[in-house]
Amino acid sequence: MSNQLYALAEQLGQAIRASSDFQQLQQAYEAVRRDETAYRIFTNFRDLQMRLHEKQMTGVEILPEEVEQAQKAMALVQQNEKLAQLMALEQRMSMVMADVQQIAMKPLEELYRLFTE
């Protein structure tokens, strides 16, 4: 049975790659990669995001200067048309993936609900 689930998960992965949402996101990444300025802004923003996320996960205080730096980086991202489009497409894909996860988790949620009633 679990082999069947893995096979279905592989099919889901293929379906995601073939979806228009994913294709558009991939094209947006490629457009950013080809634009030196957009790519530099993007990599700086992602690096900063990762450092702040790591601090947050390890319980290290995020300094006000770091918050300000993140806000400035986000403003740069939003001012760049290619990056703004990329962020919007990332958000849309993230929502799709959250919906897919919710659907996949529904059987377990139903089981837990029955168990606790």
Secondary structure layout plus pairing:
Blueprint: H1 2-18, H2 20-34, H3 36-58, H4 64-79, H5 81-116
Helix pairs in contact: 2-5, 3-4
| SSE string | HHHHH
Strand content: under 5%
- Anisotropy-based shape: flat
Radius of gyration, in angstroms, nearest whole number: 19 Å
The proportion of residues forming helix, as a percent range, comes to over 70%
Provide a count of the helices: 5
Largest sheet: none
Q: What is the CATH homology-level superfamily?
A: YheA/YmcA-like
Q: What fold name stands as the CATH topology?
A: YheA-like fold
How many domains make up the coordinates?
1
| Count of beta strands | 0
CATH C-level category = Mainly Alpha
Determine the N-to-C terminus distance: 28 Å
Stretches where pLDDT is under 50 for at least 5 consecutive residues are none
**What is the level-2 CATH architecture name?**
Up-down Bundle
User: What structural class is derived from the secondary structure elements?
Assistant: mainly alpha
How much is the average pLDDT? 95
Can you describe what's shown?
With 117 residues, the chain is an all-alpha fold. The protein has one domain (2-116): Up-down Bundle (YheA-like fold). It has helices at residues 2-18, 20-34, 36-58, 64-79, 81-116. Helix 3 (36-58) runs antiparallel to helix 4. It starts with a helix and ends with a helix. The relative contact order is 0.11. The model has no long low-confidence stretch (mean pLDDT 95).
Core attributes:
5 helices; Com_YlbF; YheA-like fold; flat; mainly alpha; 117 residues; YheA/YmcA-like_dom_sf
